[in-house]
Batch of 2 targets.
Target 1
Amino acid sequence: MRHARRHIVRRVARLAAVGGLLLGGTMVTRAVASEPPDASAAARTLARPASGTGAALVSRLGDARTAGHWVGSDGRPVVAVTDEDAAGEVRRAGAGARVVRHSMRELKSAVSALRSAPRVPGTAWALDYRSNEVVVRGDSTVSGSDWSRLTGVARDIGGFVRMERVEGAFTTRLNGARPILSTAGRCSAGFNVTDGSSDFILTAGHCGPTGSVWFGDGQGGREVGSTVAGSFPGDDFSLVQYAGGEAGDGADVVAVGGGKGVRITGAGQPSVGQRVFRSGSTTGLRDGQVTALDATVNYPEGTVTGLIETDVCAEPGDSGGPMFSQGVALGVTSGGSGDCAGGGTTFFQPVTEALASLGVRLIVSPEAGDAGPGPAPSQPAAGGGGAAAGAASPGASAPVTGGNGSTLLSRLADRRNVGPGLLVVAGSLIVLVATRWIRVERDRSVYRRYYSATWG
């Protein structure tokens, strides 16, 4: 009876092993023969704007009847309009309305006049939707004569151009999620992106020209990649191609310090008043609010336009680091004034513009509905109260994995690779060999007993 049971167990094991060989062979064949996923089928890379209702209303009413939109303290969109009829339409759509004197067309005309004036390094301007003004700022490097000349240009434009002097200097933040280093200095990695065949780091354009080689340590022992495309001045973005071609594990996560990270689920455009978060290798995770859009900054190296203006602080070394909110990528750190001790102004290159110009898309993860709250910033934003600001978080928390390149386990577990099939084949072969060895040993034992009994 015991012999019969052993015989049945061995037969079942052999059949299972043969089945495993067939299954593993099929898995390997499919993995080898399968085509890479179509780019159109990849996870989305564009998220809904933070204030979709406000943006839609501005688009429908036109720039002659509106002057921008922002997120109010209660989290509702507010649209600046130039007449009561437009205000009524905005309110019927569920948004707040504020009647202002100057339309977006007038505000943009004022900006055009400022751009036409002789360039003054150390100055910046942006549209302040909430005050219905164009705000021109001059840092400590601007001479009295240059400031006086620019003030005259503003006076000729009209009373809705406000002049402000600020302490410090508007500089690019050269010298982050993860630090990357080259002969040009230290920057921060922004977001991981791909063109479908190779992976890249999206970072600031002022960090280094095309051909710059980046390392992950100060001794040059770990090469990250090299800059293959970018734009600065004018814009402020660049692509660093990974030396190994792949971003590796955790490509959808941005580091925020302490071994923690935030999952990125898409890219979007921010709204004025929205609470945002920035990560950098120098100052870690910081938060604040978007104060203006389409800002222009006259850095010493050149003029950059179309930037996002915020009251988030930053310091040298944070350049290129990611700005995000609710897991949605918004921008990469360009520059600004001030520091994280006394506060300041920081400008960001919009992510959506950079992606479109470079022909790449974000490497993202599916949105996790049951994810826990994101990590807390190391310092709250100054004056960042209100329901809208308080309700926002960086995004879903995620652990930060090691350096570039996937681990063996993750590569084998990827259903698109041949690893799982090979594991099944190997396991089946082991079972077959084991059952055969057991049978041989059993036959040898039986023979020895028979031989001993026969010959005494």
Target 2
Amino acid sequence: MISEWVLYIVFFLLAAVFTAFLGYCLYIHHLHQKYDHIPGPPRDSFLLGHSSSLTKAVYSDNNLIHDLFLHWAEKYGPVYRINTLHYVTIMVYCPEATKTIMMSPKYIKDPFVYKQLFNLFGKRFLGNGLITAVDHDMWYRQRRIMDPAFSSTYLRSLISTFDEMSERLMDKLEEMANNKTPAVMHDLVNCVTLDVICKVAFGVDLNLLNQKDSPFQNAVELCLKGMILDVRDPFFRLFPKNWKLIQQVREATELLRKTGEKWIQNRKTAVKNGEDVPKDILTQILKSAEEENVNNTQDLEQMLDNFVTFFIAGQETTANQLSFAIMALGRNPEIYKRAKAEVDEVLGTKREISNEDLGKLTYLSQVLKETLRLYPTAPGTNRWLHEDIVINGIKVPRGCSVMFSSYVSQRLEKFFKDPLKFDPERFDVNAPKPYYCYYPFSLGPRTCLGQVFAQMEAKLVLAKLLQRFEFSLVPGQSFDIKDNGTLRPKSGVICNIKQCS
């Protein structure tokens, strides 16, 4: 009798599983019918779509997934489709559609993509911070609080701190030049950019150039690595071989948030006690938050979300941009000479750089803009299509994600002649302006809050480097790109350093 009931239960379970699977297959078929009029590469399989090709690209040592997107854009045009299981993404490289969608607040960030970053392997990570907040009202409230701390006027008042942190790098490079030690530039500028954001934003001096194996710095690295694996490989957490790394990433995430909570509470206490506090970004944020009557636990969690966001999205991307700029200058001697000549003319032998000096370094600005064209450190963003739309003559039904890749659009021949050539002249004041195909800091209302901060920092560090040192790339190193959540030089950019006479 019992065995018969067991057989019945097993039968009904199998029938339920089969029915669910059949229903899922029918839904996949429905999606294929709905979107298959849009061009795109052949699917690897009916159920998985293009998942196999995408996973292979993610784990490839020699190719970037962004190069695969570029290849498909060149083959299938400015609008093409990607299927992953029951999820459809429309890749778009049409300037008019980019303008329409990115510049409008009615197209929200794709909830599926950005809500994945709320937690990282079960630990709250970016939460509902400025990058990940999908709800427009929630995002706008945070942005209004943050804006005064990132205004051009306020950041210009902090240039002496940028200068002080940059001088530490110059001292380190002088020591390495005297010892004739090759410099791994990415590691060095990574320390500086993290020092800058800690000091300028939160009034904390980590002095990472004189530390080894900083837990905080390692935590940022681990979180970036975990983020890319969690978002792009839905099966990563299922394999026991990955569980050790997952636990390390969880601990790193917890360290970042606990550190942020400690720094924020210390500053709140100092303000409450009437102590003198730095006029830094954290003070500005707390001041604005008080005016907005932001005091509850949920708001504190959002402050921590943005604390983590600043380090993940701000520090790392600036370090990568500097590394790519140094690599590009080392590979292009004529551009290097011209940039150095401009720096020498504007700065001479002066040690402290002013805002006025930075404004005169126009060619250096072009170098940095061209660096971000060829090597955008944050290479893409998504929006959710809640209504039918026609893009480049193709009707795209609602209910899917639209992805914009600056890496792809900025390397397409139709937008930039000879796109793989590093040419700062593209951004000369008299050159034609790119029309909605160049967006390293995104576009529209969700454009990067820290873009002035990042470019001010990058320009000052690079100017000091060109003023004080001659550098050349060590032969034999790779110039490939590594994708670790943000794009960075794979080799770390190893240079021989010599002081200018």
